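Hi U.,

Before I forget, here's the chain from the pilot set. I'm dumping it here mostly so it's searchable later in email.
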Amino acid sequence: MTDHAPELAQARVRQLIALTHSLTQRLEAETQAFADSRPQDVAAGLSETQDMANLYRRDSAHVKANPALLRDAPLQDRQMLMEATRAFDEVLNHHARAVEAARQISEGLVRAIAAEVTAARIPASAYSADGRAAQGDGRAVAFNRMA
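Structure:
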C-alpha cells in the first residue's frame, strides 16, 4: 500500500458513514410519511431514494468484496460505520414493513372498488325478451394481482 492508504481508507469510511446516515434519515422520513398517511410525500422523492439506495448497494458490495479498502482506516471510524450500518438495517426493516402494509392497503382498495363496479353492473341474461343475446354493460374492469 502507499503512504496515503490510511487517509484514503479514512475518507472512504467517512463517505460510507455519511451515505449510510443520509439514507437512514431518508427511510425514517418515508416511514413516518406512511405512518402519517402521506404516501404522496414518499412518491415525490422516490427517484432520489432509489439513487441513494443504488449507490449504497454498489459501495457496500465493493467494500465487502475488497475489505482491505477499509483496513487502514482508524478503528474509531470503522466502529462508527458498523454502528451506522446497524441503525440502517433496523430502519430498513421497519421501512420494509411500512411499504408492505401500504401495498396491501392499496391492493385492498383496488379490489374493493373493482367489486363495487362489478356489483353495480346490470347482470347479463342469456337472451333478451326478443330472443337476441342480451347486451351487457360495455365497461370492463381489469385487476392485475401483480403489484
